[in-house]
Amino acid sequence: MFQSKWEFGLAAKDALALRQAVLVEEKGLKREAAFDRYDEIAAHVFVWDARGPIAAGRIFPQGRATGLGSIVVAAGRRAEPFADLVLRILLDKAQNLAGDPVLALLFPGEESLYIPFGFQKVETRPDGRSVYSVPAREIRWHSACQEG
Length: 148
Description:
This protein is of the alpha+beta class. It has one domain: Gcn5-related N-acetyltransferase (GNAT) (Aminopeptidase), CATH 3.40.630. It is built from 4 helices and 7 strands, in the order βααβββαβαββ. The longest helix has 14 residues, at 13-26.
């Protein structure tokens, strides 16, 4: 059985530690690319179980929009749907916040998680990352469950 909790700002030690382990130590990103000023004001969701940390993500105000991102899943747990779970938790929270649209700054390869929820690319940045957006009221909730 897994558990989740919200942590806020830089007090989000568990979520930030998992992001450090995945993005900096495992994937080799520079710390400056893995962390930014939004970490100080973000609400971070952290998921774990008896085996240890599983996944984390964050939500934060970004001007008139709501920003999402930095969804990471621990090595050895990526075949399980925890990235999808974290994104669903974040999107549920985003629909209840004032910021609209919902924005996500994605590294190449992350798009397939967001597109089924209605995110569309609005900008490509020089560093190779892209900004995706969806109006909060147009988030598409979908299920992998199908009738037999």
